[in-house]
Each structure stands twice: as C-alpha cells, then as structure tokens.
Amino acid sequence: MSEPIMPAELADLIKHWGRELGFQQIGIADLDLAEAEKRLTHWLASGYQGEMGYMARHGTRRSRPAELVPGTRRVISARMEYLPERQEDMQHAIRDPARAFVSRYALGRDYHKLLRRRLQRLADRIQDRIGPFGYRVFVDSAPVMEKPLAAKAGLGWIGKHTNLINPRAGSWFFLGEIYTDLPLPVDEPAVDHCGRCRACIDICPTGAIVAPYQLDARLCISYLTIELNGPIPETLRLLIGNRIYGCDDCQLACPWNRFARLTKEPGFQPRAGLDSATLIALFAWDEATFLSTTEGTAIRRIGYRRWLRNLAVALGNSHATTAVRAALSARAADPDPLIREHVQWALGRSDQY
C-alpha cells in the first residue's frame, strides 16, 4: 500500500506524468458549468446545431459532469498539440485549386484513440500511486463540454471562433478529459485575450461565425463536409473552395497562432500524402482504396459517398481543365443520387468557364 499523498502533491504529479506521456499541459477544473450551460441552451434554441441532434440528446448530462458520471468531483483536462506543418504551407495548399485541402487535425492517426490511450495510461499511473479510484476517460466520445472545462482548468480561453486558444501555444491542439472522484485542487481559469480582434470572423469563407463566440454550424465548412449527411446547399458550395474535409481558416487567421509549435507526436504526421494530394487523384479512388488508405484516421468516419460528394464540389470550384471535366464525367452516371447530383452541379460549373 502506497503512503498517503496530499491532493496538491498528487495534482503536481499528475501534471508531471502528463508531460511525460506527451501532453503539453494538464489542468484541473471543478464542475460548475452554469454559464456554459446557458450558452449551450441558447445555441440549441437557435438551431445552430443543424443535423447534430446528439448535441441536445443527453440534456443536462453534458453540462453537469456528475450527472454523466456519478461521483465525479473534478475534471482533469489535457491538451496535445497536433500542428503537422508550417502554417505558410497550409495557406499555399488552400490557394491551389488543384489540391485537396484536408483539415490538418485529420491528416494523421485518429486522435480519439491516441489521446484515449495516453489518458488511460495517466489514470493507470495515478492508480499505481494511490490505489483504486473512481474515474472515466473521454476524448470527444460522450456528452462532455470539453472546451469550457479546459478553459476552467486554465488550458486556454474560448476564442471568438469557439476554439480554445492558449496564450503560449495558439489553438492547434486536441483535448481530452478524465472525470474523477479525487478531491484535487483546481487551477485558475484562463482569461480571454481576444480583445477587439475579429480576424477569425472576417476570414470565415461562409460567414459561419455569426457573432463573436457564436458559430452557426449549418454554415460551417467543417459541418458541411463532415457532419452533414445529405446534399450540401448550393448557395454554400462555391464558398467551400478546395476544402474536402474540414476547414482551418479561422485558426490560420488567429494572431495567437504565431506562438503555435509543430507537433512532436509521430502519430499526427500526414499519412498517404494527403497533405499534398490533388483533387483528381483522390476522386479516382474506389471504395476499397478509400477504406484502406483512411484506416486509422478521422477521415474514415465520413464514408466513401460523402468523400466523393465533397470532392465533386471541390472539383466544381477548380479550374475547368480537360482532366477535371474527364474526372467528373467518369462519375456523371454514378448510381448514388447524392454523388450524381453533386457531379452534375460541378460539370455545370465547368461549363460556365
């Protein structure tokens, strides 16, 4: 049996172990999310969640951690940086209409599994030191308000684009949590430093940041290319450009990301050349190639048909070269009406050049 340890000493050890496991920061928060709950209620009432019905499905269990995991007293919040390349290179990729742009968080290994395993190892270390305790690990896998909790834990503040910003590291990082019954001392919440800046609001291609700290997901390119199951509204297709999975524009515009660092985590390095692939090359994949190439990545979750839907839109926004028209024409009679409709739209666009 290990010797008793004071909560403050244990908290320091947890932060030390977290850094050893590859996290850049660990913070500890209490469970008071009353303000965040009010904002969530307003957001849902505005219909900004679109088809993401799961955002309302769990009621107050999302904003009241002890209702989700009875006995929870504290939340251990962790962040891990994932930026795989220079932000200047990302800008070049977005400006090249022939290239496919994938949100940089999705280029490497699926972060859900990687972070969950590291957090489990952190929980194991705690248990080795103090014995059995109550806990549950989360990585974007349950009704958890990870950004408000991270802000309370001192990991950063929620910016006007609704992403978390750290004053020393920007916003290119993942979050994960351990709900626990341990009476650990809490950290000081982060302070908002957005000030008068509206760079993220002004840069958003679709105007999805409808007001500071308010995101209408129905307009967001990440929602349109990942969460939306059906057709992408025609009025938004032109604005998507070459973004086929997610969008990083608001982070690229944020001045705090001048402090962002490249990731040291090998699992977050780009796979299968997806950081430089062309639209035509990816549109030529059959389903077997899509499934094998995206295995173990976050991209896999959208499935093959949404993958082709997104690529068709991007090709419609590309230069109408002979090769682009040939690629689209090859799928003009696709048996899937979703794919066929977006291909026909893209071909119609190329006819206008």
UniProtKB/TrEMBL annotation:
<keyword id="KW-0170">Cobalt</keyword>
<keyword id="KW-0819">tRNA processing</keyword>
<feature type="active site" description="Proton donor">
    <location>
        <position position="140"/>
    </location>
</feature>
<dbReference type="Pfam" id="PF08331">
    <property type="entry name" value="QueG_DUF1730"/>
</dbReference>
<dbReference type="Pfam" id="PF13484">
    <property type="entry name" value="Fer4_16"/>
</dbReference>
<feature type="binding site">
    <location>
        <position position="164"/>
    </location>
    <ligand>
        <name>cob(II)alamin</name>
    </ligand>
</feature>
<feature type="binding site">
    <location>
        <position position="194"/>
    </location>
    <ligand>
        <name>[4Fe-4S] cluster 1</name>
    </ligand>
</feature>
<feature type="binding site">
    <location>
        <begin position="247"/>
        <end position="248"/>
    </location>
    <ligand>
        <name>cob(II)alamin</name>
    </ligand>
</feature>
<dbReference type="InterPro" id="IPR013542">
    <property type="entry name" value="QueG_DUF1730"/>
</dbReference>
<feature type="binding site">
    <location>
        <position position="140"/>
    </location>
    <ligand>
        <name>cob(II)alamin</name>
    </ligand>
</feature>
<feature type="domain" description="4Fe-4S ferredoxin-type">
    <location>
        <begin position="182"/>
        <end position="214"/>
    </location>
</feature>
<feature type="binding site">
    <location>
        <position position="250"/>
    </location>
    <ligand>
        <name>[4Fe-4S] cluster 2</name>
    </ligand>
</feature>
<dbReference type="InterPro" id="IPR017900">
    <property type="entry name" value="4Fe4S_Fe_S_CS"/>
</dbReference>
<keyword id="KW-0560">Oxidoreductase</keyword>
<dbReference type="GO" id="GO:0052693">
    <property type="term" value="F:epoxyqueuosine reductase activity"/>
</dbReference>
<comment type="pathway">
    <text>tRNA modification; tRNA-queuosine biosynthesis.</text>
</comment>
<keyword id="KW-0408">Iron</keyword>
<keyword id="KW-0411">Iron-sulfur</keyword>
<feature type="binding site">
    <location>
        <position position="197"/>
    </location>
    <ligand>
        <name>[4Fe-4S] cluster 1</name>
    </ligand>
</feature>
<keyword id="KW-0004">4Fe-4S</keyword>
<keyword id="KW-0963">Cytoplasm</keyword>
<feature type="binding site">
    <location>
        <position position="175"/>
    </location>
    <ligand>
        <name>cob(II)alamin</name>
    </ligand>
</feature>
<feature type="binding site">
    <location>
        <position position="62"/>
    </location>
    <ligand>
        <name>cob(II)alamin</name>
    </ligand>
</feature>
<feature type="binding site">
    <location>
        <position position="247"/>
    </location>
    <ligand>
        <name>[4Fe-4S] cluster 2</name>
    </ligand>
</feature>
<comment type="similarity">
    <text>Belongs to the QueG family.</text>
</comment>
<keyword id="KW-0846">Cobalamin</keyword>
<comment type="subunit">
    <text>Monomer.</text>
</comment>
<feature type="binding site">
    <location>
        <position position="200"/>
    </location>
    <ligand>
        <name>[4Fe-4S] cluster 1</name>
    </ligand>
</feature>
<comment type="function">
    <text>Catalyzes the conversion of epoxyqueuosine (oQ) to queuosine (Q), which is a hypermodified base found in the wobble positions of tRNA(Asp), tRNA(Asn), tRNA(His) and tRNA(Tyr).</text>
</comment>
<feature type="binding site">
    <location>
        <position position="254"/>
    </location>
    <ligand>
        <name>[4Fe-4S] cluster 1</name>
    </ligand>
</feature>
<feature type="binding site">
    <location>
        <position position="204"/>
    </location>
    <ligand>
        <name>[4Fe-4S] cluster 2</name>
    </ligand>
</feature>
<keyword id="KW-0671">Queuosine biosynthesis</keyword>
<dbReference type="InterPro" id="IPR017896">
    <property type="entry name" value="4Fe4S_Fe-S-bd"/>
</dbReference>
<dbReference type="InterPro" id="IPR004453">
    <property type="entry name" value="QueG"/>
</dbReference>
<feature type="binding site">
    <location>
        <position position="220"/>
    </location>
    <ligand>
        <name>[4Fe-4S] cluster 2</name>
    </ligand>
</feature>
<protein>
    <recommendedName>
        <fullName>Epoxyqueuosine reductase</fullName>
        <ecNumber>1.17.99.6</ecNumber>
    </recommendedName>
</protein>
<keyword id="KW-0479">Metal-binding</keyword>
<feature type="binding site">
    <location>
        <position position="222"/>
    </location>
    <ligand>
        <name>cob(II)alamin</name>
    </ligand>
</feature>
